[in-house]
Amino acid sequence: MTVSLQVIYPASEDATFDYDYYEKTHLPLLEEHWGDMMDTVEASRGIASGPDVPPAFLLIATITFPDMETLDTAMAEKGGPIIDDVANFTNIRPQILVGQVLMS
């Protein structure tokens, strides 16, 4: 069963997010530490939550893994550097959703 790890960065007035750092440093860090375990990585920068409505989220990253065991191993054995890097590009504490992929 394919599982997804979604990392969700909510928008707020005081939120900061360095998209350049995220793209050039954080995403390669994912590849360095989890590359052999991940199936896919997708990051979407929020641009709107509807017509003339600012985005509710600055960014949502979706990473898929072949199964829950692989995700657990990724987090337990190689998640530290990735989690520690979050403070380098945002002051937001991300929300996390682990899900079962129903369709891809």
From TrEMBL:
Residues 17-90 form the EthD domain. Gene3D superfamilies: 3.30.70.100. Coiled coil: none annotated. Pfam families: EthD. InterPro entries: Dimeric_a/b-barrel (IPR011008), EthD_dom (IPR009799). It comes from the Bacteria. This is EthD protein. It comes from Phaeobacter piscinae.
